[in-house]
Design goal:
mainly alpha; 3-stranded mixed β-sheet; two-stranded parallel sheet; 12 helices; about 60% helix; about 5% strand
């Protein structure tokens, strides 16, 4: 669908997240972004909302772009008796608003879990992206509620691309790592072999709608997780689908959801993901749990298709 809207038969890999024609990119002031994020977090209850608000009141967010500042975004914990710091480069784009919500979700999670102490405050990989992706989802719903026409189409496209990047693409990354490590167990892996594994794995994930051009075989090198935190990438896919299932639980009973969600975040690393989901009546060991998340993403694609 995106190739058709861009007037192409197939997308080049650099077109994967290109903006659609037809609507100018919306710009947001910092004050607008703050208000949107805090409105979204207000749905989680008084305490998470108050924690998020304090990060704006104190000098705990470094969002100003400047020469020499590192790219990327993250919430950096310190020790359990100190608050985290949020780092990003806010350029006023819609993606920056969602990134702010994402990193503040981490910050709220880290703050609520701090009482567990140094050994249990840290969240396991299975739940590491829960609060961040949930905060992002709440702000997306807020943005979508006000979007009409081409602006709504752009917003849906960006959200679908983000979902594909967080779920399908990260699973492909994980498969690449698995295949590479399996090959390495039998001996040294040459650059040509490594590139072939990368092209094959990513090719499976994008299918025939996208062309992976010359030179793409070395693109694995820009994924820092492969070197610094091997196999972390699955946490993004796991967390995104888990959050989609939680969003369904919230939609069914918002009043009951908020205190359970706060309790989930406050548990830090003291519970397994199975124990953490039990209060919501969810079981990640059931394939239907993951189907719920996939169905929510599928509905986004269906709505996008209905608008073009």
């Amino acid at each position: 669908m995106k190739a058709r809207l861009l007037g192409k038969r197939r997308l080049e890999h650099w077109d994967r997240t290109a903006p659609l024609p037809g609507a100018p990119a919306r710009r947001y002031a910092w004050s607008e972004a703050r208000d949107l994020v805090l409105e979204g977090f207000a749905a989680l209850g008084n305490r998470p909302a108050a924690i998020a608000a304090r990060f704006f009141e104190e000098p705990w967010i470094d969002a100003e772009p400047r020469i020499g500042k590192q790219q990327g975004a993250y919430s950096h914990p310190v020790t359990p008796d100190r608050h985290p710091f949020v780092f990003l480069n806010f350029m006023g784009e819609r993606r920056d608003v969602l990134t702010l919500a994402h990193e503040l979700g981490h910050a709220v999670h880290q703050t609520l879990a701090a009482h567990n102490g140094a050994l249990l405050a840290d969240t396991p990989l299975t739940l590491a992206e829960t609060a961040s992706l949930f905060g992002e989802a709440l702000v997306f719903e807020r943005l979508l509620a006000d979007a009409r026409g081409p602006d709504r189409l752009q917003l849906l496209a960006a959200r679908i691309e983000d979902a594909l990047g967080t779920v399908v693409r990260q699973i492909a990354f994980h498969r690449f790592e698995t295949r590479f490590h399996a090959a390495r167990a039998s001996g040294e892996v040459s650059p040509a072999q490594l590139g072939a594994i990368w092209r094959e794995t990513i090719g499976e994930s994008v299918g025939p709608a996208m062309r992976l051009g010359a030179g793409y075989e070395v693109y694995w090198a820009y994924i820092g997780h492969f070197a610094h935190t091997p196999f972390y990438v699955y946490a993004y896919a796991f967390g995104r689908l888990l959050v989609e299932a939680l969003m369904e639980a919230r939609r069914a009973d918002p009043a009951a959801f908020a205190p359970r969600y706060e309790e989930l975040l406050a548990a830090g690393g003291s519970r397994t993901y199975v124990e953490a989901m039990a209060p919501f009546g969810l079981d990640p060991r059931d394939p239907g749990f993951w189907s719920t998340g996939c169905a929510r993403l599928e509905r986004l694609v269906d709505e996008f298709e209905s608008l073009i």
